[in-house]
Write a structure and sequence with these properties.
2 domains, elongated, 151 residues, alpha+beta, five-stranded antiparallel beta sheet
Length: 151
Amino acid sequence: MKYRVLTEDEFEALKTNLSSFLIVQGIDAASWQKMKDLEPDLAQKYLHDFSDFVFENTLQKIGYIDFFNGNSLKLFKCNNEDIHLINIENDNKFGEIEDFINALISNPASFTVQKQTKKYHPNRSVELFRMISSGGLVSDGYWYEKLNEMY
């Protein structure tokens, strides 16, 4: 298993996709029910494979990830080969990202801004999954692109 098993709610939301996945594997509805009853370990393996398939497809589509914790904002642009970071920090704590950005615009000298680029380790999908699992939010890249123009 490369990522994690989907939750019951996630499987429920993706039941049509799971059915299609199983059909591609040569497993119809009756065979699936029989497998779950008689070979639960094999059925579990298919659920693991489906979970990895879903995560892999989702991770491939991610373009930006944001982290905001009140006094720092980390904005990532996730290219195919490397990842770009704009890291902005302040000694004050802000409740909302908009307040943080407004303070940055009105008093940029009170903020520290750093930019970095690095290759993925060990690979793109695993690193993005780790970032999202630790609180990163997939975004449309609005703040990254806006602040990248400024810095």
